Amino acid sequence: MTGSSTLTGGLTAHLLPSGARPSALDFAGIAEPDIIWEDARWCRFVERTDLHDVRYLEVREDGQTVALAPLLFTAQPGGLLFYDPPRLVGTPGALAEPELLDETDRQRWAELNAALPGAREDQYPSLALATFGNHHGVAHAPGRTHDERQAVMAVLPELLQQAGDELGCRSVALLYVGESDAEAVDHCASRAGYTATLLGAEGVQDLAADSWTEYVAGLSKRRRVRLRKEVADYERAGMHTAVRCGPEALDDEVIALQVAHRAKYGLPGGEDRVRRDFDSVREELGDACVVLRTERADRLVGFVLYLRTRDTLFARTAGFAADARGCYLTLTYHETARWAVEHGIRHVHYGMAAYEAKHARGCRLRPRWGWFSFRGAGSDIFSETLALQSQSIERRLELVGAPAAPVASRHLSAPTEPKVER
Fold this sequence. Notes:
Elements: E1 5-6, E2 11-15, H1 40-47, E3 53-61, E4 64-74, H2 85-88, H3 103-120, E5 126-129, E6 139-140, H4 146-166, E7 171-177, H5 179-191, E8 195-206, H6 212-217, H7 221-236, E9 240-245, H8 252-264, H9 271-285, E10 289-296, E11 299-308, E12 312-320, H10 327-341, E13 347-349, H11 355-360, E14 364-374, H12 379-400, H13 408-413
Parallel strand pairs: 5-7, 12-13
Antiparallel strand pairs: 1-2, 2-3, 3-4, 4-5, 4-6, 7-14, 8-13, 8-14, 9-10, 10-11, 11-12
Helix pairs in contact: 1-9, 3-12, 4-5, 7-10, 8-9
């Protein structure tokens, strides 16, 4: 496939050599797109990681590049959790909540998880079609119609398997696909033997107001009361918000707070890794950086780093001091909205997890799907675990009040017995 693979509809595909990627001048789809995760600058940032090798699928039509899809190659265990397919399956946390399953399913989950560690070892190398940022990362050429984009998405499961074969992979996954593309992907993926899984939902806040006063006035009474209380508590605690933009916004205070925040929650990566990550963001995306800071008595106690496109903010990372109670909710949702509406921002993408907080503060929860293909004797273990994993996240979103409509293959595999009222 490094040469070419001919597909239906006149499309051809190429697995680009290691280290190769068209520039933004060569392919306009990655030249300042609306979604930061498809931007050439973001591509360069991801390529600097030392946990995955990055390759690209180039899709052409009539000799022109019409789409570029990033691939994250994991040679052995130890990649980033959310982009390491064998490890992502069955790991409780943001993408699996087994405690929400019925008792019988919880018991089966435990049995499967006892078998997974041994099964995972046989699934490397592994390949994920995705990019950091919980996004599939597929960039389309500007001006492509909806149907033309769907045609590309529909062939990606087949292309991914071919690329995996060429790279000697034992497992592949196409991750973080939204509702607009899910049906096209699922049709092809189900025929190719993939297992569909609801990975979660991205919280997106849409902002129509042009001022803070207009924004607050447009909220429901319940949300307006909550906002005023949380902002008042924030201010009574002596906290205030400062905003810095550009590469200088990622200073030593921000790095130190991020290191402390990760240590508090037992997240991997010490100061060296955090500093390398922030240095890469500064060097590749510095002009897109917006850091909202919570300060108290001249001390930084909270921050959220956003990456900005024309009218959208994308949350990248955050950190909060242990003694800054209430800072997270106010800074992330209210103070961000205040700054956003005053600076021409119409959308804020908050990423996944923390669904209750996002939904209660006006975010739409947009489902994100993944498709997995495993080989060998342990493949059934992965498929069954993924079905339960999806069921747990489906239940989480139902409980939040934002249920996700299942893709066709998931609907066909879902239990038919009526659910017990909870």
